[in-house]
TrEMBL record:
It comes from Kutzneria albida DSM 43870. This is Uncharacterized protein. The lineage of its organism: Bacteria, Bacillati, Actinomycetota, Actinomycetes, Pseudonocardiales.
């Protein structure tokens, strides 16, 4: 039900941008609902540089934080093991 509503809203948005209704409906059917860990992994896979910058910002917010600790937390607390696997080679051990 929620996915159908999202598809409808996406199709309306595309039509508002000038896409033909049939084409808008076809495009809107490609929406995916993903768990946060999969969405994050997909996002990291697309742009590791930006993901590493985000990890650095998060680490900088904590007096005792470093990028390795942020990755550990992402894996242990948020079950984002794939994100950790993608970023670990680019982050020092702490």
């Amino acid at each position: 039900m929620i996915l159908a509503e999202l598809e409808h809203a996406e199709a309306r948005k595309l039509i508002g941008r000038g896409v033909e209704p049939r084409e808008a409906a076809r495009r809107a059917q490609h929406l995916q609902v993903l768990p946060p860990c999969q969405f994050a992994a997909n996002t990291v896979a697309v742009n590791r540089t930006r993901a590493l910058a985000a990890v650095a910002v998060i680490a900088g917010r904590r007096p005792d934080g470093n990028a390795a600790e942020v990755l550990h937390r992402l894996g242990a607390r948020y079950r984002m093991e794939r994100v950790v696997d993608l970023l670990r080679p680019f982050v020092g051990s702490g």
